[in-house]
Amino acid sequence: MRSNGYDLRGPSALEPPSLLGLETSCDETAAAVLSLEGRLLSSVVASQHDVHARFGGVVPELASRKHLEHIAGVTEDAVAGAGVGWRAVRAVAVTRGPGLAGALVVGVSFGKALAYALDVPCVGVHHLEGHIASAWLDDPDFATPAVALVVSGGHTHLYLVPQRGEYALLGKTLDDAAGEAFDKGARMLGLSYPGGPALDRLAQSGDPSVVRFPRPYLHRGALDFSFSGLKTALLYCVRDRTRGAAAVDPAHVAAGYQEAIVDVLVETSFRAVRRYGVSGLAVVGGVGANSRLRAVLRARADREGVRLTLPRVELCTDNAAMVAAAGWWAYRRGRWSSRDMDARPDLAMVAAAGSGAGT
Ligand code: KG4
Ligand code: ZN
After folding, report:
1. CB-CB contact of 207 with 252 (8 Å)
2. Which CATH superfamily is domain 140-310 in?
3. What are the start and end residues of each CATH 3.30.420.40 domain in the chain?
């Protein structure tokens, strides 16, 4: 008998005990169910891209309201899709931060209320810890110590992962994130939002050697990144084109620009792998969906004998399966959040032996 979607009765003996993950840090409302054995049973994502497209970027106020509208339905779909009932849900994991304040509050409030109603623990998850945990979803044998590159719209961070749940920051972007470089570059080229996938598509018909862009920071041997100089180079290139100085096909421009970002990400990641003497590299986060990055990473990993873990594209961009995976690890170690857990737009990643999750 279901009147409100939260029927807490009903048998659960045949259903695998599970953990529900929730994600609302930016413009994707997502829910996923992971069995307590670590098997992904369902993953549902309601994207708000259409809502924000006409503004050319995410409008925080709108994002919060859309999360509020969709979160219950998305959660019900994830639970139904997993073939489990509410009684099988033994814990709720939710992204606590970083992200947009109002957007996070929707997920955290909903997750806490649901955990309260089900009388199960709630686990707050750091969004980047979620991205890193996505490595294990498609590759349960992903071995540590390893290097993880988290490359998304807000972050370009390189971590040493001594073991699951522990992270040491090796380097990060000093200005824009790689996803931002894709999005801003796409806007300069007149492409629609979200820019990263649009630039990826345009670049597929271009030749990256026609226009050469700088590879900022690469020559310094550092593990940090910088993309603002590259963005400026694109601005000049586009300005010259519109002034008729060089009528270069925009596909070539996109391909050259993308190649510079990819080169910087790949070189720096493999540099970290060599420097720290590890054999595994995981590349996670939205930019990990980029087709050229995936191809170059695979070729390079084959050549150098590095064990590469690249989650499938749907697990690179924001989703709740990754939140469930990170929450599952914390849950099994008893790292549950307290009842007064808040949402933290600037949540820091705990460096070692922790999850940014505890309150
Ligand atoms: O991880 P994500 O979904 O959200 C954040 O945590 O930021 O990453 C979103 C970013 C955006 O900047 C988007 O343009 C970029 O990932 N992205 C891509 C591709 N798909 C998503 N960038 C380049 N090529 C893609 N195919
Ligand atoms: Zn993300």
Report:
1. yes
2. ATPase, nucleotide binding domain (3.30.420.40)
3. 2-132+317-332, 140-310
| 359 pLDDT higher than 50 | no
Element (H, E) at 132: helix 127-138
pLDDT digits (tens, 9 = 90+) for 45-65: 999 999 998 898 899 999 999
**What are 162's two structure tokens?**
């001594």
* Atom number, ligand 1, closest to the C-alpha of residue 195: 14
pTM here is 0.93
Residue 23 beta carbon below 6 angstroms from any ligand 1 atom: no
Question: Which ligand 1 atom sits nearest the alpha carbon of residue 289?
Answer: 26
Q: Which of 322, 333, 197, 335 is nearest to 254 (CA)?
A: 197
338 Cα: distance to centroid of ligand 2 (angstroms)? 24
Quote the tokens at residue 208: 């990256």
d(CA 258, CA 260): 5
- Check: CB of residue 178 under 8 Å from CB of residue 261: yes
Q: What is the CATH number of domain 2-132+317-332?
A: 3.30.420.40
Establish whether residue 179 lines the binding site of ligand 1, counting it when its CB lies within 6 angstroms of any ligand atom: yes
Residue 12: per-residue pLDDT: 54
Task: Tell me what pLDDT residue 11 has.
Answer: 46
Helices 60-82, 101-118: inter-axial angle, 10-degree rounding: 30
Per residue in 17-38, pLDDT (tens digit) is 999 999 999 999 999 999 999 9
164-207 pLDDT tens trace: 999 999 999 999 999 999 999 999 999 988 899 999 999 999 99
Terminal-residue alpha carbon distance, the chain: 37
3-state SS string for 18-61: EEEEEECCCCEEEEEEEECCCCEEEEEEEECHHHHHCCCCCCHH
Is 246 a residue whose pLDDT tops 90?
no
